[in-house]
Design brief:
303 residues, alpha/beta, Inosine-uridine Nucleoside N-ribohydrolase, Chain A, eight-stranded mixed beta sheet, two-stranded antiparallel ribbon
Amino acid sequence: MKLIIDTDPGIDDAMAIAYAAAAPEIDLIGLTTVFGNTHVHQSSRNARFLVDKLGLDIPVAQGASAAHGKDDHSPSEHVHGPEGFGDLTDIPEIGQNHDLTAAEFLVEMAREHAGELVVCAVGPLTNIADAMALDPAFSKNLGRLVIMGGAVYCPGNITPHAEANIYHDAHAADAVFTAPPETVLVGLDVTLKTLYQNADFEALAQKSADMGVFLRDISKFYLQFYKEIGGLDGCGLHDSTAVIACTHDHMFDLVQTGVQVITEGDALGATIPQDGRPPVTVCRDVDGAGVVDLFTARVASLP
């Protein structure tokens, strides 16, 4: 399966990209970057760093720096650290971004691999909305869009109503759900059931002396946030669960519904079931232990 991850690395993004690199059923052909956990230039730098660390030969195309209608963005430093990788702040600039913007790259790759390409969006949906606006054929050419975002049947995490990725560009998200390509929504309904604990990171580091150790080390900041804010002994495998859903949909309980995103007021970013919208596939439940085990098994195979 040919895959592009639209990403804002981000600790859980790094985990998801590592999983995709390790999974034999995934052909990772590129990364596109967006604001979110970090500023977009940090997202791109971090993505290129990960590509190099994983020994991949794939492009990184830089995308949106802010939500539709906004000029800037304030990253989630308290969640992912000042540079996106927890306490690691000295992250080298390696290589260069692709000449095309993220939206242009997505359009070109969907056209080149019509019907085959899966895009897994694990940040705000700005680049996806931009690609849809840039080329009316993008949605038709795309094989599938898998989104880490939303909280359809459960409370949000950035507000009581909203999940962070959708909240950070609610207008773009609503545009995507107004006329979506074939779409799977992997939200907090399932990702909070995939708790990855400190012991899991330690076990991973024992098996993977480079990437496993790196993920364990950058995760300490992230785990502390989860403990202080949510009282949880672990973190949800948010982005990794979305990548796993690209190839292992049998691990999920799936329902079909249209989705509307609230674009103003106290419920900004809420993802509401809406029968009047084109249907998307919403993940309502998951084999959480199975996802955790699969993540560990795949990433443990990395050096």
